[in-house]
Design goal:
Blueprint: H1 22-26, H2 37-42, H3 47-71, H4 81-93, H5 98-105, H6 109-121, E1 125-129, E2 136-140, H7 142-164, H8 168-187
Antiparallel strand pairs: 1-2
Length: 188
C-alpha cells in the first residue's frame, strides 16, 4: 500500500508528505544570478498560474512516485526496464521499424538495436520484412504479448489493492480526477 510515510527515492526533492515549501521548490540554484526588481515585476506570474504550476508540480511528483513503486513488480518479468519499455511499445502500439521504435523510446538506433537483440534472444520480438522487402518491421511474439499482459495485470493488482484501502468517497474523488487527468493528457 502506498503511504505518506514511505521513503523518498534518492534524488527526489519532494519530502514524504508530498508538500514542499514554494520557496524551496522554486528557489534558483545556489550561485545563480538573482533577478532585478524590474525583471521580477515584469515576470510576476498571476495567482492562477501559480496555482496551476503548483498542481502541475505535485502531479508530476505523484506520477513519478506511482510509476517507481509499481515498477517494482516488473522485476518479476525477468527482463530489464529498457527491454520492457520497448516491448510495451510493440505490444500496445503495434509493429514498428527499428527507427520508429528508437524514436518512441527516445534513444538512438544503435541503442535500440542492442535492446531488440536481447528481446529477440528471449523470443519476445521477431523481425519480418515488409511486403516490398525493403524494410524490416519489429513485432512482439505471442510470448512477448503474454509477458506484457501478465506484467500489466501485476501492476494493476498492486494499484487496486492500494485503492481498495481508501474510503469509498476517496475512490470516487479519484474517478472524477481521472477524467480531468485524461483531458489534461489530451491537451499536452
Amino acid at each position: 500500500m502506498l503511504s505518506a510515510s514511505s521513503s523518498v527515492p534518492p534524488g527526489d526533492p519532494v519530502p514524504p508528505s508530498g508538500v514542499m515549501a514554494p520557496a524551496a521548490r522554486w528557489a534558483p540554484p545556489e550561485g545563480a544570478p538573482l533577478r532585478t526588481a524590474e525583471e521580477s515585476t515584469l515576470a510576476e506570474p498571476s495567482p492562477s498560474s501559480l496555482v496551476a504550476t503548483e498542481i502541475a508540480d505535485q502531479l508530476h511528483s505523484a506520477a513519478i512516485h506511482l510509476l517507481r513503486r509499481l515498477r517494482v513488480r516488473d522485476r518479476e518479468s525477468g527482463i530489464g526496464p529498457a527491454q520492457l519499455s520497448a516491448l510495451s511499445v510493440l505490444v500496445f502500439g503495434g509493429s514498428r521499424s527499428l527507427g520508429e521504435l528508437a524514436d518512441a523510446e527516445q534513444v538512438r538506433p544503435p541503442t535500440m538495436s542492442r535492446i531488440v537483440a536481447g528481446l529477440q534472444r528471449s523470443r519476445l520480438v521477431r523481425r519480418h520484412a515488409t511486403e516490398d522487402g525493403r524494410r524490416v518491421r519489429l513485432e512482439a511474439t505471442a510470448k512477448g504479448v503474454s509477458l506484457m499482459w501478465e506484467g500489466r495485470k501485476r501492476r494493476v493488482q498492486s494499484l487496486a489493492k492500494a485503492l481498495a484501502a481508501l474510503p469509498e468517497n476517496g475512490r470516487e474523488q479519484l474517478r472524477g480526477a481521472l477524467q480531468l487527468l485524461q483531458q489534461v493528457i489530451r491537451d499536452l
